[in-house]
Amino acid sequence: MEALRQSWTKPVQSQKPTTKKVSFEEDSTKATYEALPNAVFFALFFSVVYFLLSRWREKIRTSTPLHLVTSSEILALFALIASFIYLLGFFGIDFVKSLILRPSTDVWNSEDDEEESEVLLRKEDARKVPCGQALDCLVPAAPVVSCQKMFDEKPMRVTTEEDEEIVKAVVAGTIPSYSLESKLGDCKRAAAIRRDALERLTGKSLSGLPLDGFDYESILGQCCEMPIGYVQIPVGIAGPLLLNGREYSVPMATTEGCLVASTNRGCKAIHLSGGASSVLLKDGMTRAPVVRFGTAKRAADLKLYLEDPLNFETLAVVFNRSSRFARLQGIKCAIAGKNLYLRFNCSTGDAMGMNMVSKGVQNVLDFLHTDFPDMDVIGISGNFCSDKKPAAVNWIEGRGKSVVCEAIIMGDVVRKVLKTSVESLVELNMLKNLTGSAMAGALGGFNAHASNIVTAIYLATGQDPAQNVESSHCITMMEAVNGGNDLHISVTMPSVEVGTVGGGTQLASQSACLNLLGVKGANRESPGANSRLLATIVAGAVLAGELSLMSALAAGQLVKSHMKYNRSSKDAPNTA
Fold first, then answer.
1. Cα–Cα distance between 157 and 154 in angstroms, integer?
2. What is the pLDDT of residues 148-205, one digit of tens each?
3. Distance of CA 56 to the CA centre of its chain
4. What is the pLDDT of residues 34-77, one digit of tens each?
5. Is 464 a known active-site residue?
6. Catalytic-residue membership of 256
7. Which is catalytic among the residues 59, 282, 359, 562?
8. Angle, helix 558-565 to helix 529-555, in steps of 10 degrees
């Protein structure tokens, strides 16, 4: 490196242009001679193919047997084989080698990219002095940032000179940040380099964001792109939740103090009252493409075709080819002028199933083009599904798992554990969860805080947290029973979207939480049983959370409990 720096600072202008010119002429002559036989064999290959196809077409037209060949055809076959072998050796073998052999570490500073090497050398020379004193500093004068500060600071995770050069190249934009994993072959090293480059570009420290202790290979190509670390979310346990005669310790990942404690109190009240029961009503993921026709009549024709029971069996066979677990259950259509929305509903085993149902829908759309060639597919999703958005169609028709969970809480437990009365809970539920939500124009939000519990469990078990939007659709009902002594409470959740395979469920932490619940992975004996059980556990935890929060509100304990469990005193002196 010292020799390169000295050669860079010496005035060698008289030698450099001559060297480059000779090299260019030699390379041009060499490339010309190498390209000549390639062009000959390339033209020979396609000429022979055209000749043979023409001859065979003529034989088919005249009913001549194909195995009867002339001398010219035999010569053409030999020429075809010879040219194919040559082209395979020239193109195919090199291509295979490029896939098998990993690029060397010199890929970052290739000899073919002389300009990039010069830029890197200049930047290394500029590290010793401020930018204004460096020789030929090429850093553009955009933001007023010291070159010494940008390149002289040693990164926290980069330990080798090679990594240092890669970081500089990422900062300079000569190496795309997204390509680090594929070129380095080491996901953790790529994350460390990307992280250091980001710190230098932004001037912001990421010291509080952990990098070590995570398997970055496990997220490559499926969970997260361009990682620079991971966020720590504490996981608490609520329970045991006694549901359908079995006890479950429910993992909840949250940063909201009092949430786990409150849900745990609800679990205790349910357990002391004999437990809760849960029933799965529906199980089907949906996807709704939007298609367009030239007229509304043609759109109506397809609607009638899809809704005809005589055609369902054929469509189901086409749809079910996409997966051994996907099973089409029904198609619901909605028309808007010339546009038609097709809401496919299917079971997806233990997977949440969005990708699975999308593949099946694509199969059906390709099949429909035969009888409806004028159908224009605008989008595989037309928001009639509806995914990650509050929608009445999910609230009414359901999406994913539709679950209802109930429990009868004894009056003594209401008074001693929940510190309130049955009458107060029933009245509060009517005025808050029912009337208050109606006054607000709520859509599926007739509850106290179902989304709190849903999101916490989703984060802990590797579900898609964005799907808490429709998964939190819930109506909480309370009624005095047994002569007004006891409380009947229920939650009805029509669109709980969960899975135990795929996505974030395969990550180590989330997989451990699923294992704690006894629903890790796919159920081999009864496909779909694990995901259905997880949906009922979610509903049971929501029931516990609703019971406890409503009791705190009825007893006037909400503010007191949050001041105790959800307030940090660490920065209180500074604030004061």
1. 9
2. 443 344 444 667 899 999 999 999 999 999 999 999 999 999 999 999 999 999 999 9
3. 51
4. 566 777 777 888 888 888 888 877 777 777 777 777 888 888 88
5. yes
6. yes
7. 562
8. 110
